[in-house]
Amino acid sequence: MMKRQRALLSNRNIMQGQGVSLYIPQSAINATVEEDILLSVEYSCHGVPTIEWRYTSNWGVQKIVEWKPGTQANISQSHKDRVCTFDNGSIQLFSVGVRDSGYYVITVTESLGSSQFGTIVLHVSEILYEDLHFVAVFLAFLTAVAAMLISLMWVCNKCAYKFQRKRRHKLKGNSLGLVIINSCFYGWRWHMLSCSHQETTLWLICNSWPYHLLLQKAQRRRLSSKMLSVSQGWAQLHSYLKRKTFSNGRRKHSPL
């Protein structure tokens, strides 16, 4: 016991009152979130002392625990299930957070009334690499989603292009016929005809040689329904029939 007291007296962190000696091996502790911290102290005095720990921070002063060695500790409600006491006066904090940073003051009071206190500074910081890991995972997720969207847009574009090309190829042969039929169907001449005359006119248009001639001409030029409007198709047919009628009239009136 004498050797231990001499060792305590030779240490700079010894605080001694009238009959109480308090030794704090580490007065400043750095920790990270969710870590278990041991606030280690040692004391020597006559009789059985009363040990009290208080917490001081920007939010005020708060009592943590008070007990006598060998008896049950009186732990405050704020630190319930988070504090473990030892007979030498040390305490252990479980799963510390950023709000646990501050000053931890221990007071050792003997039965004669003399007391001694000491302070331990605790600094709790967040783990930076966890934040970086979260950011990296989030960026990787966004990159994967962007790649999937780009691939989906490319596939949809290809499908739309093939569908339009197939439809254009299918409508290439009968595009001019649809233009002429639509022109007759929606024109004012169509409403002036009776039902039987409508059917006869439609059959004559679709089976006449000017229609087939213009259809072959449109196929050679690779015209589609988008390239030839209704008015243009009807104008071409009307112009062709007019030229044909004029040439036939000249042949009839030409001298033998």
Keyword list:
6-stranded mixed sheet; 256 residues; 3 domains; alpha+beta; 3-stranded antiparallel sheet; Immunoglobulin-like; 12 strands; rod-shaped
List the helices and strands and how they pair.
Layout: H1 2-9, E1 14-16, E2 21-23, E3 28-32, E4 37-39, E5 42-44, E6 50-57, E7 60-67, E8 74-75, E9 83-85, E10 91-93, E11 102-109, E12 115-125, H2 128-171, H3 175-186, H4 188-191, H5 195-207, H6 209-221, H7 230-253
Parallel strand pairs: 3-12
Antiparallel strand pairs: 1-2, 2-5, 4-10, 6-7, 6-11, 7-8, 9-10, 11-12
Provide structural commentary.
The strands form three sheets. Strands 3-12-11-6-7-8 form a six-stranded mixed β-sheet, with no helix packed on it. Strands 1-2-5 form a three-stranded antiparallel β-sheet, with helices on one face. It has a three-stranded antiparallel β-sheet with strand order 4-10-9, with no helix packed on it. It has 256 residues and is of the alpha+beta class. It is rod-shaped, with a radius of gyration of 50 Å. β7 and β8 form a beta hairpin. The chain has helices at residues 2-9, 128-171, 175-186, 188-191, 195-207, 209-221, 230-253, and strands at 14-16, 21-23, 28-32, 37-39, 42-44, 50-57, 60-67, 74-75, 83-85, 91-93, 102-109, 115-125. The chain has three domains: 2-126, Immunoglobulin-like (Sandwich), CATH 2.60.40; 127-171; 172-244, no CATH class. α3 crosses α7 (230-253). Can homooligomerize through cis interactions within the same cell membrane. This is V-set and transmembrane domain-containing protein 5. Its main location: membrane.
